[in-house]
Amino acid sequence: MHPRTTTERTTTDALVLGGGIIGLVTAWRAAQHGLRTAIVDPEPGGGAAQVAAGMLAAVTELHYGEQTLLALNIASAERYPAFAAELEEASGQEIGYRACGTLAVALDADDRAHLRELHALQRQSGLESEWLSGRECRRLEPMLAPGVRGGLRVDGDHQVDPRRLAKALVIACERAGVTFHRQWADRLTVVGDRARGAVLADGTELSADQVVLAGGSLSGKLAGVPAEVVPPVRPVKGQVLRLTVPPSYAPFLSRTVRAVVRGSDVYLVPRENGELVVGATSEELGWDTTVTAGGVYELLRDAHELLPGLTELPLTETRAGLRPASPDNAPLLGPTALPGLHLATGHYRNGVLLTPVTGDAMAHALTTGELPDAVRPFTPRRFSALEVLQEQTA
Asked: CB–CB of 342/155 below 8 Å?
């Protein structure tokens, strides 16, 4: 037999550029649909998932003007139990999925008024949440500060451990036959006005029938992508702390607790293994991933106001990561104006939550050329259409 050429050996049906949880779930689902699939990433399973807290908070993450995104978030949250079970079976790894619920609390009159408004918006949107008095909040979570004025109990907002999720997806991809190229993609290959693959950092040329750009906050920096389809994604820095709850302190928290303290969001996510995740800052600082004394101080200060006993816990890790944010805070999914090129990026603060629905949507797009109806509002083409409209009305 004659050895196959490099081009023949590296031709795939779907080439996924980026091995974070979004790229991994896209590749896993594509492989399950019979596509020969490959991932390009120097460290699959890394990226934002290593910093994310893993809140599956479709209800408590609701923001004004994001009702279309809410529908996608809820659809993905509803898929999580079955998704988690399937992934754990496929990988042999637990992903820390917990249906423990969330408690959003208020510390002063302004916070209480804000939370009341959120409760009204949730009810208008058909979401289930229960208003509790401060005393009822402390009955649920005895470690809460005496100053808690009220809160919202949302049993439908769950959690998962993003690091375990990423590890499980890597293994599931390997078992499904996905090929891993553990290095950076240098540039997109475009031939005859169609995306045809990518060139890697070492010069290796990979050819593919379809390419998925799933590079998180780096998605807009890949060379060779025509200007009209470069994803409008920017990095938003988030600093996160991890503490350890000693067995003698357990149970410290039984569910996720979150609040707005002095205008800043803070959340505390308890893991079954005793880890307590505290986050997260939101900083528009470009590509900076420095953990700062100010960021750590603000998180600890705000968390201490919620749970005074927290400062007695060991501080075991400080990290900073970059969320991939789009202009409307919603993901860019599916085919672009360049044939053969798809996007799966821009998930901002909902990447972990949207993992199940993204995988399904991208597999559908790769096999049919179109997005499912429920996902069509998140086509990458919405931004180019918006720009044309703005030019016409200027």
From this structure: no
- Are 262 and 302 spatial neighbours (Cβ–Cβ below 8 Å)? yes
Rounded-to-integer distance, Cα 208 and Cα 10, Å: 8
CA-to-CA separations, 118 to 104, 130, 321, in angstroms, rounded:
10, 11, 27
CATH topology of domain 102-155+235-324: D-Amino Acid Oxidase; Chain A, domain 2 (3.30.9)
Q: Is 42's pLDDT higher than 60? A: yes
Q: What are residue 39's DSSP bridge partners?
A: 16, 180
pLDDT (tens digit, 9 = 90+) per residue, 314-335?
999 999 999 999 999 999 999 9
To the nearest whole number, what is the mean pLDDT of the chain? Answer: 91
pLDDT digits (tens, 9 = 90+) for 88-102: 999 999 999 999 999
In the chain, ranges of CATH 3.30.9.10 domains: 102-155+235-324
Task: Give φ, ψ of 14 to 5 degrees.
Answer: -135, 125
Comparing 3-7, 310-314, 381-385, which segment has the lowest mean pLDDT?
A: 3-7
3-state secondary structure 83-133: HHHHHHHHHCCCCCCECCCEEEEECCHHHHHHHHHHHHHHHHCCCCCEEEE
Q: Compute the radius of gyration of the chain from its Cα atoms.
A: 22
Query: What average pLDDT does the segment 145-157 reach?
Result: 93
Residue limits of CATH 3.50.50.60 in the chain: 6-50+164-231+327-393
**pTM given for the model:** 0.93
Rounded to the nearest 5 degrees, what angle is found at the Cα of 275, between the Cα atoms of 152 and 141?
30
CATH fold of the domain at 6-50+164-231+327-393: FAD/NAD(P)-binding domain (3.50.50)
pLDDT surpasses 80 at 345: yes
Q: Report pLDDT for 64.
A: 63
- DSSP label of 231: -
**226 touches 213 (CB < 8 A):** no
Residue range 276-282: mean pLDDT, rounded: 91
User: 161 to each of 158, 277, 288, 375, how far by Cα in Å?
Assistant: 11, 10, 25, 25
